[in-house]
Write a structure and sequence with these properties.
Rossmann fold, about 10% strand, 5-stranded parallel beta sheet
């Protein structure tokens, strides 16, 4: 059976990924009612991953060394690939993942200043170098993303008691490095990464996502016929 399609969404917290993943999932399900997409997220998406997520994102997790943080992200990712992503792709399904190794390169490689090289090497060693077929990178302005993320996290904590604000407590210089590293990734891999930037409306972003995914699905369909 031909390999399925692996789509990731990337961007700063507050960039609108959650909303766009829901819209993309609904569009994919309507397009092919016989096969709903597999949705997952990182960190999280498995029992082990959810435990790692609780540790890494909780604001009470003090003193995590940058290398420890990166190692936890890859432990989560390796489990998700083995348990969710690879089996779904092998079954020919469309997988939509909220964050993948680009996030680690941006946040730990850029934000924590560990550099891209160790991130890419760990991805090769621990993740079998599996790569998305398409990455949708949402990059509204930095100020817009941060303000939206902080408002959302306050709402989530009030509603659920979960506190996932550890990264949002970083200084603006950290997020500037993350934002710049994302742009560097997009410039390095233009065939994989579709950059959607600017403070666009939800509908405008969705239209750009649908156009990019439709194009990639057409390519996949041609490969299956070849």
């Amino acid at each position: 059976m031909p390999r399925g399609l692996f789509i990731t969404l990337e961007g700063l917290d507050g960039s609108g990924k959650t909303t766009q993943i829901k819209r993309l999932a609904a569009w994919l399900a309507a397009r092919n009612p016989d096969q709903e997409p597999v949705l997952t997220r990182q960190p999280g998406g498995t029992v082990t991953g959810d435990r790692i997520r609780a540790l890494v994102l909780d604001s009470r997790s003090k003193g995590l060394a940058p290398m420890t943080e990166m190692a936890l992200m890859f432990a989560d990712r390796a489990q998700a690939i083995a348990e969710v992503i690879r089996p779904a792709l092998d079954a020919g399904k469309v997988v939509v993942c909220d964050r993948f190794t680009d996030s680690t390169e941006a946040y730990q490689g850029g934000g924590r200043e560990l550099g891209s090289a160790p991130v890419l090497e760990l991805h090769r060693l621990l993740c079998g170098n599996i790569k998305p077929d398409l990455t949708l990178l949402l990059l509204p302005s930095l100020d817009f993303s941060l303000a939206r993320a902080r408002r959302r996290n306050e709402h989530v904590e009030t509603k659920t008691g979960l506190n996932e604000t550890r990264f949002e407590q970083e200084q603006d210089a950290f997020f500037t490095r993350v934002w710049q590293k994302y742009r560097e990734i997009a410039a390095r891999e233009p065939n994989r990464v579709v950059l959607i930037e600017g403070d666009l409306s939800i509908e405008q972003v969705h239209e750009k996502i649908v156009a990019a995914v439709s194009k990639r699905l057409r390519v996949l369909a041609r490969k299956k016929l070849a």
